[in-house]
Design a protein that fits this description.
The chain is α/β, with parallel strands linked by helices. About 40% of the residues lie in helices and about 15% in strands. The protein has an 8-stranded parallel sheet. The longest helix is centred in the C-terminal third of the chain and has 19 residues. The chain binds pyridoxal-5'-phosphate.
Length: about 230
């Protein structure tokens, strides 16, 4: 079995190589270790190897691990990347630093209202259904600007960017990543016109396609398998 240490260094080497090919500084690409289904012990191990940002999909599972690792709370950055439900927003607003899967204004309002006042604003990405899949999470491309303008009105939320999970394909496909980058650029033009801060985050790229995502401008990679191994 591959150790966590070697898996993590392979991922770092992949990022560095792709960044070089893309002529981008590797520091412009943040690595989120997606730890869903893996234990707090595995997360602590990754922490000791230098990893700081972790991604979780399921609220209850995440809260348990965040509590177990509360002694590291100030060093860790917790990203919520799973589907959002109204009855879970309070826990997310209280325990997470980032949310990548925002797709409804109602949820954004709740997250803003429920964000504890002593914490900095919640950092948020809008999830886009980039491959136009039926019954998939995320807003359609043509809804992004409207939701971005609404979310920018909320006090305890900083809109940082866009997130997408492209539909699985046989061959790695650049198109969905290009589409997300262009969407961010067009949406930013409107934000500038309305005197809102621009979005600086493209959350795209997973274990199988991180190189393509980097070439196309990803600033945050969400990597599970390639770090922690195959999920059961
Ligand atoms: C599980 C998951 C990942 C990580 O996927 P891997 O293929 O294991 O790298 C990334 N993003 C989201 C939203 C996920 O649910």
């Amino acid at each position: 079995m591959q150790t966590l240490q070697s898996a993590l260094s392979i991922v770092h080497a992949r990022i560095k190589k792709a960044a070089q090919l893309a002529n981008r500084p590797p520091e412009s690409i943040a690595l989120i270790a997606v730890s869903k289904t893996f234990s707090a012990t595995a997360i602590a191990h990754a922490y000791h190897l230098g990893q700081r940002a972790f991604g979780e999909n399921y609220v209850q599972e995440a809260i348990t691990k965040i509590s177990t690792l509360s002694h590291l709370r100030n060093q860790l950055i917790w990203h919520f990347i799973g589907p959002l439900q109204s009855n879970k927003t309070q826990l997310i607003a209280t325990h997470f630093d980032w949310v990548h899967s925002l797709d409804r204004f109602k949820i954004a309002q709740r997250l803003s209202q429920q964000r504890p006042p002593h914490l900095p604003p919640l950092q948020v990405c809008l999830q886009v259904n980039i491959s136009d899949e039926i019954s998939k999470h995320g807003i359609n491309s043509n809804e992004v600007t409207a939701l971005a303008l609404q979310v920018n009105q909320l006090k305890n939320i900083n809109l940082r960017g866009l997130m997408a999970i492209p539909a699985p394909t046989q061959q790695p496909d650049h198109k969905p990543f290009i589409k997300l980058r262009k969407l961010l650029e067009t949406c930013n033009q409107t934000l500038i016109q309305q005197h809102f801060p621009i979005m600086d985050t493209l959350s795209m790229g997973m274990s199988a396609d991180l190189e393509i995502a980097i070439i196309e401008g990803a600033t945050m990679l969400r990597i599970g398998n390639a770090i922690f191994g195959v999920r059961k």
